[in-house]
Specification:
The complex is a heterodimer of chains A (379) and B (304). Chain A is α/β, with parallel strands linked by helices and 379 residues long. Chain A is built from twelve helices and four strands; from the N terminus they run E-E-H-E-H-E-H-H-H-H-H-H-H-H-H-H. Chain A folds into two domains: 85 residues; 249 residues, no CATH class. In chain A, 36% of the residues are buried. Classes of the chains: A alpha/beta (379), B alpha/beta (304).
Chain lengths: 379, 304
């Protein structure tokens, strides 16, 4: 050993007797007990008022059974600016050194900044929302530009990557989408069954299930499931790549991140989501059929026959068209939030949450706009 | 151990005889295998109370794994690890909790929690410990913030960073903040994984000085991993060079320089080239060597 350590703060098996401080005659303050983080609890209530300015100040440490940084700091706080002039008497050398270190420390009080008022917070949140909306719009523009570039040079499209994302975002989602749509079909038919029976209009369950599933529920439910499944994973994947500087590495290697990361995901969802919607149409209507047979006594053959007569093809196309737009919303918002990640692991989580919340919200907004639009156009 | 008396009596006596009262860390016969890859093959290492021991060795020589085994993040395939004389394998949950209050660990990339400010990071060990102590044992926030601010000031961080999040800090500041957190509980054993990696020579020298002053102020036993020759010469009392799955040599830096083993010698070949400007190195006219300027060798040393 080059030199023995100056301080040995750790006497063997120090008991944690409660710390205390007693005023004695002639400005002598007797410390007792363990002035350690274990012994300090509740000390604030037991402390006498601090010594007056200029009065003699002697700290008697002979009664101490333990002392650490926490104790040193508590003592410094109690002395409130007079720590430097206190005379230490009867202290163990290591503890005295620590106390002197604490007394000499120059720490500026840095209070946490005051919480802004409600109006200011509202203003900031609004501003943040506007800035983000603008950034999202700019991102859509960049993606369109990149897509234009790829259209001009189709060889730059990464076909393998597209297929990969079709598989994990589409094929792997088939069970959950099918089951959910089936249950929605069951619920719709079940809710309608009572009312229809009341009017003796049992057979209209076909229109009820058919129109609601094809036009609304199948595209919307599928989009919500995929927003939770794929939108979040896009944000987390790209966000992690931003944190580990992979995205920067791509740029320096001349690989355009938008082409490599965003376009394949966008294209893959544009392929997968309409297909999943068709699958949801099938299972949802089947769910309605099962319910119609058990509750309303309409057999499968009867159901399918009427379905073919009454449902027009454009109901299916309306649903598929919507799902194509939903796919764009989910992929763009997911990737946008991924790229918005900054710095840390915490940020990845935050952006992923935002990606899911925003894409579901936007999907529902877009759906509402479509409903109004179709109503006007009479589709 | 409260096991069948007769069978274990002998083993217990042996274990007691093996335990060295002066040793803070005692690793004996450590074998670590990952699949077929052997990292440690019968490694012995003892860290004595109050000393600074550095662990050096090439990449893949198992330094970081050894450190992880020392703090119980990983278990060796065979062998015993004793901290403060207690075999880690025999510890129960309470024993671990007590042990964790006696050490401070600083990770290579800091390991600071990105959701908390720097001061909250440093105060966290105190807060956790006082939370576990129950309602009556709780320390008040002002005191914890004060202690955390003090520890941060001791590591030389400017006061305006204490309320920032770790991702806003430079590499050198991050290391200092991580050291402050490791010091939060006044540990008896301080474990530092590559305290100067990724830093420029000036910042690295600052960290070396900081480690020395930490020992002066708090007197912990320090185990550190480092490739930084500057630090290896200045800071540790002893250096252990790892290679071939074991400790090839332990001793003060000056004594290791004469060691015959090729791996150990290779370390110091480069060291000498680094320290002295070789006049036969090339036809280039002698540039005025500035001692502070980083040389190419230095950067190779820092990276692995």
């Amino acid at each position: 050993m080059a030199e023995p350590p100056v301080a040995d703060l750790h006497p063997p098996a120090a008991p944690h007797a409660a710390a205390s401080l007693q005023a004695g005659p002639a400005g002598v303050w007797a410390l007792a007990g363990a002035w350690t983080r274990q012994g300090l609890a509740g000390l604030a209530q037991r402390l006498p008022p601090p010594p007056a300015d200029g009065a003699p100040l002697v700290l008697d440490g002979s009664g101490l059974t333990g002392f650490d940084s926490a104790g040193a700091w508590a003592l410094r706080q109690w002395l409130a600016g007079q720590a430097a002039r206190a005379e230490l008497r009867g202290w163990a050398p290591a503890w005295q050194a620590l106390m002197q270190l604490a007394a000499a420390a120059e720490v500026q009080a840095t209070a946490a900044p005051a919480r802004p008022g409600a109006v200011r917070r509202l203003g900031r949140a609004t501003l943040r929302g506007l800035v983000q909306a603008q950034a999202l719009l700019a991102f859509v523009g960049q993606v369109a530009q990149a897509a234009g570039g790829v259209l001009a040079h189709p060889r730059r499209l990464r076909g393998r990557s597209v297929l990969h994302h079709v598989q994990i975002g589409g094929l792997d989602a088939i069970p959950i989408v099918g089951l959910t749509a089936f249950l929605v079909g069951v619920v719709v038919a079940y809710q309608g069954a009572d009312q229809l029976r009341l009017f003796g209009a049992n057979i209209f369950v076909v229109e009820l299930v058919g129109y609601s599933m094809l036009r609304e529920f199948a595209p919307l439910m599928t989009a919500i499931i995929i927003a939770g499944r794929s939108g979040s994973s896009y944000a987390a994947q790209i966000g992690t790549m931003v944190v580990t500087e992979e995205v920067d590495a791509m740029r320096t290697l001349g690989i355009e991140p938008l082409e490599q990361l965003v376009l394949p995901r966008l294209l893959a969802l544009a392929i997968a989501l309409p297909l999943l919607t068709v699958w949801a149409d099938i299972t949802g209507v089947f769910g309605g059929m099962v319910m119609a047979r058990t509750q309303l006594g309409i057999g499968f053959n009867e159901f399918i026959e009427r379905f073919g007569q009454e449902l027009r093809g454009n109901s299916l196309l309306v649903g598929l068209g919507k799902s194509l737009v939903f796919a764009g919303v989910i992929a763009v918002v997911g990737c946008f939030q991924g790229f918005a990640t900054r710095g840390s692991a915490d940020s990845v989580g935050r952006q992923t949450t935002l990606a899911v919340v925003q894409s579901i919200f936007l999907v529902i907004v877009v759906d509402a706009v479509f409903s109004v639009l179709f109503n006007w156009l009479g589709i | 151990m409260a096991a069948p008396e007769t069978a274990n009596a002998v083993a217990d006596a042996d274990a007691d005889a093996d335990a060295d009262a002066d040793a803070v860390v005692q690793m004996q016969g450590i074998v670590t295998r990952f699949g077929r890859q052997v990292v440690h093959d019968g490694l012995d290492l003892t860290v004595r109370r109050g000393e600074i021991l550095a662990i050096a060795g090439g990449s893949g020589s198992g330094k970081s794994v050894l450190l992880r085994e020392m703090v119980g993040l990983q278990q060796p395939t065979a062998g015993t690890v004793r901290l403060f004389g207690t075999d880690l394998a025999t510890l129960d949950a309470d024993g671990w909790q007590a042990l964790r209050q006696r050490w401070g660990v600083m990770f290579q990339k800091g390991g600071l929690f990105s959701a908390l400010t720097v001061r909250e990071n440093v105060g966290l060990p105190l807060r956790e410990q006082s939370r576990l102590a129950g309602r009556s044992g709780r320390l008040d926030d002002a005191l914890i913030d004060g202690i955390a601010g003090w520890k941060l000031a001791l590591t030389g961080l400017p006061p305006d960073v204490v309320l920032k999040k770790p991702d806003a800090l430079s590499g050198g500041m991050l290391k200092r903040a991580a050291l402050a957190r490791a010091l939060a509980l006044d540990p008896e054993l301080l474990i530092l994984d590559e305290p100067t990696s990724g830093l420029d020579p000036a910042s690295a020298a600052g960290i070396s000085t900081l480690i020395q002053s930490t020992r002066q102020q708090f007197g912990p036993t320090i185990v550190l991993i480092s490739h930084d020759l500057e630090l290896l010469w200045r800071v540790p009392d002893r250096v252990a060079v790892l290679g071939e799955g074991r400790v090839l040599a332990v001793g003060p830096m000056a004594a290791l320089a004469a060691h015959p083993h090729p791996i150990v010698a290779a370390y110091f070949d480069k060291a000498e080239r680094h320290a002295a400007v070789d006049p036969t190195a090339g036809p280039a006219p002698k540039p005025a060597p500035s001692p502070a300027a980083p040389t190419p060798q230095e950067s190779t040393w820092k990276t692995s």
